[in-house]
Amino acid sequence: MSFIEWSVNMSVIIIGLSILIIFSRLVIGPTIEDRIVALDLLSANAIAFIAVYSIQKNTTTFLDVGIIVALLAFLGTVAFAFYLGRRGKQ
What we know:
The protein is an all-alpha fold. The chain has one domain (3-89): Helix Hairpins (Orthogonal Bundle). It has helices at residues 3-28, 32-57, 61-89. The protein is elongated and about 60 Å long.
């Protein structure tokens, strides 16, 4: 087993554990702001998982999916921020 294979396998394990911890924060989070940050962090970990999977399979076709997920995550975060900003003014 080469160093790249070992590091990819360890990355999958670490990202998986991180997703579990973030998902628990998404469910438990006491405020809506905590849940929004957890959702944004979950999308960042999904992008990292897509990148590691792309390295593992030795292909670049999945990187386009990662770019789309990043764009949707950014737009979702902006929409949530706009919603929270409007909610505070009323």
